[in-house]
Amino acid sequence: QKEVEQNSGPLSVPEGAIASLNCTYSDRGSQSFFWYRQYSGKSPELIMSIYSNGDKEDGRFTAQLNKASQYVSLLIRDSQPSDSATYLCAVSTGTGNTGKLIFGQGTTLQVKP
Amino acid sequence: DTEVTQTPKHLVMGMTNKKSLKCEQHMGHRAMYWYKQKAKKPPELMFVYSYEKLSINESVPSRFSPECPNSSLLNLHLHALQPEDSALYLCASSQLRPDYEQYFGPGTRLTVT
User: A82 — phi, psi (to 5°)?
Assistant: First the structure.
């Protein structure tokens, strides 16, 4: 069974702090890694994708991937109350003609003013 | 443009009704997906279409019937649903290579009475 594990939280950080969200996965064949943000009652929104080891930065977001440790993380700098949401880690093996995603359970982030 | 549209936004149906959910994308993506999401759970994959052909059926009951009329459209036909089928139904689309980034529509909130 291919699995993606996340701490469900809630993770509570003060406004302006760095929020660190973590994810581990079981399938060493995984090739593509994604972070989605989901506000309550809304659909998931893709915020970061990462495919190779190291860091990828986009604005206040940094995704980090370590394939040897089967670990992917998301850092949110200068956290804002509007970042309060559930963050879903998703992993794809992307084999053949399918892009099947395996989702973690999601981490709820609360940013307190 | 990373927009996937879904209609209707909300749907209430009885257990003997037949209804359809619709999804459309104009990003030139060749893969389209149906997911089901229950409250406080991650999206759960139902079907994947690759090049307008069904490539994955995650053992979904036959009361759910997908259809892909062309590369931009995806339908989900519903018949004789159960109250436990009430959920948020999400459509997504992606390129198949190289990155498999999936973009979600806003979803249809389905209530079965």
Answer: -70, -10
pLDDT over threshold 70, residue A94 = no
Q: Is A101 close to B31, i.e. CB distance below 8 A? A: no
- For A72, half-sphere exposure in the C-beta direction (CA atoms, 13 angstrom radius) is 32
Nearest by Cα to B27 from B103, B91, B107:
B103
Q: Each residue of A33-86: pLDDT tens digit? A: 999 999 999 999 999 999 999 999 999 999 999 999 999 999 999 999 999 999
Return the DSSP state at B26: -
Looking at chain B, which residue has its C-alpha nearest residue A44?
A: B104
**C-alpha closest to that of B77 among B39, B47, B42:** B47
Do B43 and A104 make contact, defined as CB atoms within 8 angstroms?
Answer: no
Residue A37 Cα, gap to closest chain B Cα (Å) = 11
Q: B6 forms bridges with which residues in the sheet? A: B23
Across chain B, where does the E strand assignment appear? Answer: 4-7, 10-13, 18-25, 31-37, 44-50, 53-57, 64-70, 73-79, 87-94, 103-104, 108-112
In this structure, chain B runs to a length of 113
Range B24-57 burial, b when 16+ CB lie within 10 A, else e:
bbeeebbbbbbbbbeeeebbebbbbbbebeebbe
